[in-house]
């Protein structure tokens, strides 16, 4: 809907500056557009797991919970599973309808007119959206080689700054800030400013690069760690994300959380998914292998990409929009990211070997001199 919307002048003033979030095109839309068979479509446009969730989840679908009852609004069982998994008390947890919901709860609890939030250029766009929705001031710092520049973020702090958002690894660039740098950053910034460490892609980091920032919460009660079951856990459709923070913060997030924001089936599936860590290890390993293979193939094709620490690659083309259209005509959905000030890049999820083979063969065909 454009600026000519007759309700715009009556609505919350922030809406004049906000455009709806543009999700990756669903398969069904491509089917409607080009009449392709669904079996021919490869969906590499939303960083979902092409391996899907734990096979144990299927049993839950065969025995769904009675749908006439409201979910457990406090997610008791799921919180207990997560608390055991992360070795924290349940009071540290806030459940969200995806981690997107968590980002909104944090913004709702802390941002308002007269406050500001800091995030990096090329960072996950929801930080910008939730800041504007709360009519707070967005402060976007310049990235360095597509990576968040923590020094610039520190310098950008103003007297009214309430939140600093850090995506690590970041979407859509796949860039990563080593944990030691984040720890130094936490040491240097004022303790009244919340640092939201969004770790949607944490599980894709090789063990050498992983750390456990949850253990830092004692020293940094202003730290909020955000995780999701939408990526490696393969449960994007069910919408479960969570925050780990000091209980005084989770108390506030729960005050602004809509009742029943996570549903019964999603809670049950999340519990099963978290308990199946063998599946997570298998998917991590295979994704990393496939990412390496894709990188080698792109290098052979002379196609530049940003070194990625997640389950996707940010790939540069001379005519990214044309390549995007041609790939989608061939049934391959990838993500244009011009909205992230990266009009020459496409973000491509790492799929299974068959998906990646088809992607590379199609790129070969498209880029072959005519
Ligand atoms: C960095 C980052 N954070 C959060 C999200 C939100 O994911 P969800 O709401 O599915 O948990 C995404 C989704 O792409 C993401 O890339």
Structure, described:
The protein is α/β, with parallel strands linked by helices and 370 residues long. The chain has 2 domains: 23-52 and 278-367, Aspartate Aminotransferase, domain 1; 66-275, Type I PLP-dependent aspartate aminotransferase-like (Major domain) (Aspartate Aminotransferase, domain 2). The protein is 36% helix and 16% strand. The protein has 12 helices and 13 strands. It has helices at 27-34, 57-62, 76-86, 99-110, 126-133, 150-155, 179-188, 247-256, 264-275, 277-300, 320-329, 353-367, and strands spanning 42-43, 93-96, 116-120, 137-141, 161-167, 194-198, 223-228, 241-244, 305-306, 312-316, 332-333, 335-337, 342-349. The strands form 3 sheets. The chain has a 7-stranded mixed sheet, with helices on both faces. The protein has a 4-stranded antiparallel sheet with strand order 9-10-13-12, with helices on one face. A two-stranded parallel ribbon has the order 1-11. Helix 3 packs parallel to helix 9 (264-275). The longest helix has 24 residues, at 277-300. The mean pLDDT is 95. Bound molecules: pyridoxal-5'-phosphate. Pyridoxal-5'-phosphate is lined by residues 47, 98-100, 124, 167, 171, 198, 200, 228, 230, 236, 241. Pyridoxal-5'-phosphate binds at residues 47, 98-100, 124, 167, 171, 198, 200, 228, 230, 236, 241.
Task: Identify the notable features of this structure and list them briefly.
4-stranded antiparallel sheet, binds pyridoxal-5'-phosphate, 7-stranded mixed sheet, alpha/beta, 12 helices, globular, Aspartate Aminotransferase, domain 2, 370 residues, Aspartate Aminotransferase, domain 1
